[in-house]
Each structure stands twice: as structure tokens, then as C-alpha cells.
Specification:
The chain has 670 residues and is of the alpha/beta class. The chain has 5 domains: 54 residues, no CATH class; 161 residues, Substrate Binding Domain Of Dnak, Chain:A, Domain 2; 145 residues, Rossmann fold (3-Layer(aba) Sandwich); 208 residues, Rossmann fold (3-Layer(aba) Sandwich), CATH 3.40.50.2030; 30 residues, no CATH class. It is 49% helix and 9% strand. It has 28 helices and 15 strands. The strands form 4 sheets. A 6-stranded parallel β-sheet has the order 12-11-10-13-14-15, sandwiched between helices. α6 packs antiparallel against α10 and α11 crosses α13. It binds iron/sulfur cluster (SF4) and Broken Fe4S4 cluster.
Length: 670
């Protein structure tokens, strides 16, 4: 795919061009100026000790090259990958730890601004963790859940609590190959130990620890984080919202929440809508307060409150260049330090909030869960006070696109049968009948090294045309949102005949936005539910399902890709392979992992090849499961899907429907 423009987003590209005309540099120019080191890019550089860095290059490097210590290219490349997995796992899991600490503080009454919002989800989680909940005070149950989760971080032996959520056969594979994760911190520490100078030198053995660490991320850190966030702030259900740069308002205070952690952002949502704050904003000349999001903090508040999103990773500098952002709070992960330098050219205040992350040039307002409201109000006031400093500088883009987000595991189950018949049966049936060819998780970052968001858009378009249902998270969702793909109309216009029928019957888009990066855990539990439902594979492995992160850039994406591969999903990552220097490591991650787990981790820069590989994996899985051969427009017999009206009718007639915790699409509060 030619890189025609820097971004495939129309508004993004307009801002980039405006910035170039005004001599403002962004990641796009820096990516052009700063070429990747070809040795490091392919995993052939080792710098774990000071006899190096050793660059293992040259003809026949695989057979001959060795570092000063004698390390082979395979062990160097494997070590590099395992270190990426460890860092990605640490990022998600440290976030999860903070969520568990917040849940504990809320349950014990020391974090007075937080409470249990979704008691039903709390009870569901308590049930999985084998914690008694019937007849007990909610906060007691929440405290026990938080403590049980915290055990997962420091456990030395045994297995993570949530390993048992995976299908039995998936667990058996992990035990057979010795990769069932024990404790989250233990796996990260052991990965770092084994990849330090002079320890583990067997590529396959090293990569097995990579898998164990990544599984601690997926079935540990990510899943814990998703569940606690749902318990504290509510399990998402579909809502309408908006995306792109037109979400910023000329006459209101624009405050952006950026990063990954939802805790402070949730309280900011509340504070910004308080009458006192709105009155204060008016006293400073604004008509109101407009909250917007960026990256995954955006996804968190979008999923639960419909707060509009300005987009994903590569949009963060562009948002500032609209000239309309009065303040941007940043917590942790995927925050470009360049935003503080750029903000100096505008009036935007960058506010760091995490005790773990400071950026030179930013104002630091430290958050802790015991004083959340105080901190949130201080930040909202700072944004308001900065509104009068706004000048006419900026690109002032007004275009925005509608979207529907908020598809949790629970809602997807509900939408297939209502409260009383919630199940994954209709989805499995639709796959078996060939109406839906397969399912793809289209996830991960957007990246200035390619035409940003273009590969997400290309694959989304082609996959739904081929009757593939897409579930998306993170900046992949933002890419689809800003392109206008997260609406039911997209199914009518672009989806193949089978997928279109399913989407029309249920009233859903063909791309379901499941949340932030940590919410990839929702895909794991959905795949597990499909396995339990029957008719397809009885484990995650063997499903007509593929994971794709076409523009990934973060170490977290490598951890995510690896935990999907080890859970039984073939995964294709875009871009050049970070272990491309070693054929042996690539062989292990594809052939050996496929034999053991029926998952694989491929790296493929060509979007057309990614598409072909994906459809091939799906069709081969269908064949192995002896499902009807996929033919567009030709379907086998299947049960009739309940449409929204039929579902409502069923609920009306059922006793106790008033207590239903999920329902139809609601309007955003954003
Ligand atoms: Fe070089 Fe070995 Fe040190 Fe790596 S560990 S930098 S290969 S000497
Ligand atoms: S924010 S990890 S750029 S998806 Fe979750 Fe986006 Fe990738 Fe960060």
C-alpha cells in the first residue's frame, strides 16, 4: 500500500498539512527523519550487558553470528521479544494493580469518591473467584474480590485465579507445555531474569517464558482490569457518541483525558458536569465544559458515558494543533512527550496526573484515589482558567463522525437473546451456517511509520465485505470510529450479505467496539463462551477466528498478540518482524506454537497478505471443524435471530424484567 498521505484520516491529514505550513513538527515528520536501525528493528542487537551492544549481522548470521559472550542470534532475538512481552505485561498489570487497590479502598470506605456501580458484575466475578456473596454486604464482597485479585500479583506457586476461566482443553495445553502462569509479578521478574546476561540461551525455552508472562497479562492483568473497571464504573452497553477533531467546541472549555487509566477520568466526567463547574466556566466566558478523550482513557469513558473521542495514538499532537484544547490530562502509557513542546506553541496546558509519570514542560497535579474529586475539580478549574487564553491559532477542524460503542461480553450475550435467553448460540449458529465466515479481533495501535490508520481501514472494509464479524479495541477502534465505520449503516453499505443480515436483525454495526487495550480480555471470554456454547471448537484453538494488530507499535501489543497465540488464536501483526533476523525464532512462533497451542504469532507488513492469511486461517478452521464451506450469499439452515422488538416483547412478558441491567442503545451523555 503506497503511503500517499501521512494519515488516512481526512481531518488528521488536513491538520498535518496545516502544521507543516506552520512549521510545526509531529511524529509523522520525525518518523520520516529518524530512520529505524535495521539491526535493532529485526531483533539482531543485544544490549543486555556492557560488553555489547553486540550487533549480530553478516552473511549466514543465523548459523555463525554470536555476541562477545557467545549468545546466538536466535537467543538474542528471543530475549529481545521476551523483554518486550515483560514490559507490555508490566504496563497492563500495573494498571490492574491500581484498579485492585482502588476497589479495595472503595470497599473499605477510604476512597469516598468511588463506589460499586455494577453489583451484578461484582457477584459474577465473586462467583468465579469462589467468594461467597449471597446475603453479604456489597462492600465486604468487593473487599474480598480485591484481595483475591491482589493475590495474583504476588503468588509464587500454583496458578492465576482466572486461568480456570479458559476452556478446559486450553488449560490442559498450558499445563502440558509448562506455561500456565503462576503470579503476575513473578512471571515478569522471571522473564527479566532469564533474559539477562548469561542465563537462558535456548530460544524455545526463552519463548515459553514469554508465553507464560503474556498469559499472565491476558488472563491476569488485562482481565482483572476490565472486570474491576466494570464493577466500579459499570459494564458497558451500547451508546451513541462522536469522534474525530470536530468534537472540540469553539465556545466551550475543551478538556481532554488521555492515557489509559479510567479512575481519575471517571471523576473528571462527574466534576465537569457539576452545576458549580459549569457556572464557573460561564464566569470565564465559556458556554460550558466539553470533555473529550484520546487513546484508551478515551475508550474507557466513551464506553461508559459516551464521551467523544478525538482518536487514537497518532492524533494526540494533532488534537493540540486544533488550537481548541484548553487542557489535556495524561496518566500513563502511549503519551508522546512531544506534546509538551508542541503545547508551548498554543495555549494548551498539559497536566500529568500519575505518581508514575512526569513529563518536562507539563504541570503535575498528582492523583491518588483517596482525594479523587479534589484533584478532578482542580484540573477542571485549570482548564476553565485557561479558556480565556485561547487565541485564534490552530487548524480549527469541525468534521466529526457518529459511532456506536459499548459492546461488553455481557451485552453481546444479551443482544443475542435478551435477558432470559442470553447466549452465544445465535453467533455460533450464524458461523456454522456460513452467514458469518469467521471472527477477527482487529486491534492495536495506529502508527506514523505507515499511512496512519490506513491498514485498519483497509482490513475493516475487506473483512466485513467477506462476511467476517470484527471485534475491535484500543486505537484500532478509534481508527474505525473516525472513519465512520462504527455504525449499523456500515453493515448495510459494506458488509457481505450474511453479515449484513445478522447486523440488521440485531441492529448492530459489523465492527463491535469492545473498549480499551486491556479490554482485549473481553475477546478471550467471548471466545471461551463460544467454545462452551458448542457447535464450533470446544476450546479457543481451532475457532474460525484470527487476531490482527496491523499498525502496532507498543510493547503491550506484543504481549497481547502472544497471549492470544498461546490461547489458540493465530495472530498477525503488521510491520517488519522484531525478530525477523532469526528464522529459528520465527519458526518457533509460527510452526511450533501452532503445533502446541494452535495459535501463532506472524509479522507481515503487506496488508493484502494479512487479509489473505486471515481468510485462509478462517477457511481452514471451518474445514477442520467440518462446517459448511463459506460461499457468499449461500447459507445453511439456522435458528432465527431475535430482533430487538422480539427481545423486548419477551422481556416485557417476563417477571422481574424491571431489574434488567442491560438494554438497548442509549444516547451518549457526551
Ligand atoms: Fe553481547 Fe552477550 Fe552482552 Fe548481549 S549478553 S551484549 S550478546 S556480550
Ligand atoms: S492506546 S497501546 S497506541 S492501541 Fe491503548 Fe493505542 Fe496501542 Fe496505546
Amino acid at each position: 500500500m503506497d503511503k500517499v498521505t501521512k494519515s488516512a484520516g481526512t481531518s488528521a491529514e488536513e491538520i498535518i498539512e496545516w502544521g507543516e505550513a506552520h512549521h510545526l513538527e509531529t511524529c509523522f515528520e520525525r518518523a520520516e527523519k529518524l530512520k529505524q536501525c535495521p539491526i535493532g528493528e529485526t531483533g539482531a542487537c543485544c544490549r543486555v550487558c556492557h560488553m555489547g551492544p553486540c550487533r549480530l549481522v553478516g552473511r549466514n548470521a543465523e548459523e555463525k553470528a554470536e555476541g562477545v559472550c557467545g549468545a546466538s542470534l536466535a537467543s538474542v532475538a528471543a530475549r529481545n521479544l521476551v523483554r518486550m512481552i515483560a514490559a507490555g505485561t508490566a504496563a497492563h498489570s500495573d494498571h490492574a494493580r491500581d484498579m485492585a487497590m482502588t476497589l479495595l479502598a472503595a470497599a473499605e470506605g477510604t476512597a469516598k469518591d468511588f463506589r460499586i456501580t455494577d453489583v451484578r458484575k461484582l457477584y459474577k466475578v465473586a462467583g468465579i473467584l469462589e467468594i461467597e456473596f449471597e446475603g453479604r454486604p456489597v462492600n465486604d464482597v468487593a473487599r474480598d474480590v480485591a484481595l483475591k485479585f491482589l493475590e495474583d500479583f504476588g503468588r509464587q506457586t500454583g496458578e492465576l485465579n482466572y486461568n480456570k476461566r479458559a476452556p478446559g482443553k486450553t488449560q490442559e495445553r498450558w499445563r502440558k507445555w509448562g506455561v500456565a502462569p503462576r503470579g503476575i509479578d513473578r512471571e515478569v521478574v522471571e522473564a527479566l531474569h532469564r533474559t539477562s546476561v548469561g542465563v537462558d540461551h535456548d530460544a524455545d525455552h526463552l519463548l515459553a517464558q514469554g508465553i507464560r508472562t503474556a498469559l499472565a497479562d491476558g488472563w491476569g492483568g488485562c482481565m482483572i482490569s476490565t472486570d474491576i473497571t466494570d464493577i466500579l464504573f459499570g459494564t458497558p452497553k451500547p451508546l451513541r457518541a462522536e469522534s474525530s477533531f470536530g468534537i472540540f467546541k469553539e465556545d466551550e472549555v475543551n478538556l481532554v483525558v488521555h492515557g489509559h487509566e479510567p479512575t481519575l477520568a471517571e471523576i473528571i466526567v462527574d466534576a465537569a458536569s457539576s452545576p458549580e463547574m459549569i457556572e464557573y466556566a460561564k464566569s470565564r466566558g465559556a458556554k460550558g465544559i466539553n470533555l473529550g478523550g484520546m487513546c484508551c482513557t478515551a475508550n474507557e469513558v466513551l464506553m461508559r458515558h459516551g464521551i467523544p473521542t478525538a482518536g487514537g495514538f497518532t492524533n494526540q499532537e494533532l488534537g493540540i494543533m486544533t488550537g481548541l484544547v484548553d487542557a489535556m490530562t495524561v496518566d500513563v502509557q502511549c503519551i508522546m512527550p512531544a506534546i509538551t513542546r508542541l503545547s508551548e506553541k498554543f495555549h494548551t496546558k498539559i497536566i500529568t496526573t500519575s505518581p508514575k509519570a512526569k513529563i518536562p514542560g507539563a504541570v503535575h497535579v498528582e492523583y491518588d484515589e483517596h482525594h479523587a474529586r479534589e484533584t478532578a475539580e482542580k484540573i477542571v478549574k485549570m482548564a476553565i482558567d485557561n479558556f480565556p487564553n485561547r487565541t485564534s491559532e490552530g487548524s480549527h477542524i469541525t468534521r466529526k463522525t457518529p459511532l456506536i460503542a459499548g459492546f461488553s461480553h455481557e451485552y453481546i450475550e444479551y443482544m443475542q437473546g435478551g435477558k432470559w435467553r442470553a447466549s452465544f448460540r445465535p453467533l455460533n449458529d450464524a458461523i456454522m451456517a456460513g452467514r458469518i465466515r469467521g471472527v477477527v479481533g482487529l486491534v492495536g495501535c495506529d502508527n506514523p511509520r505507515v499511512q496512519a490508520t490506513s491498514i485498519h481501514k483497509y482490513l475493516a472494509t475487506e473483512l466485513i465485505k467477506n462476511d467476517v464479524l470484527i471485534v475491535s479495541t484500543g486505537c484500532g477502534s478509534a481508527a474505525c470510529a473516525t472513519a465512520g465505520y462504527l455504525t449499523p449503516e456500515t453493515a448495510l453499505e459494506n458488509a457481505g450479505p450474511g453479515l449484513r443480515e445478522v447486523c440488521e436483525a440485531i441492529g448492530i454495526p459489523p465492527i463491535l467496539h469492545l473498549g480499551a487495550c486491556v479490554d482485549n480480555s473481553r475477546i478471550l471470554t467471548i471466545a471461551t463462551a463460544m467454545a462452551h456454547e458448542g457447535g464450533l471448537s470446544d476450546e479457543i484453538a481451532g475457532m474460525p477466528a484470527v487476531g490482527i494488530a496491523p499498525e502496532w507499535m507498543s510493547e503491550k501489543a506484543i504481549a497481547i498478540g502472544t497471549y492470544f497465540a498461546a490461547s489458540g488464536v493465530p495472530v498477525i501483526m503488521g510491520g517488519e518482524s522484531p525478530v525477523g533476523a532469526s528464522r529459528e525464532v520465527e519458526r518457533i512462533m509460527t510452526e511450533v506454537w501452532f503445533e502446541r497451542y494452535m495459535g501463532a504469532l506472524h509479522f507481515e507488513p503487506d496488508p493484502e497478505k494479512i487479509l489473505a492469511m486471515t481468510l485462509d486461517y478462517i477457511d481452514r478452521a471451518r474445514e477442520n471443524l467440518k462446517l459448511r464451506k463459506y460461499e457468499p450469499g449461500k447459507f445453511g439452515a439456522e435458528r432465527v435471530l431475535m430482533d430487538m422488538a422480539a427481545r423486548r416483547e419477551l422481556e416485557r412478558s417476563a417477571a422481574g424484567a424491571a431489574h434488567a441491567g442491560v438494554g438497548g442503545i442509549s444516547e451518549s451523555q457526551g
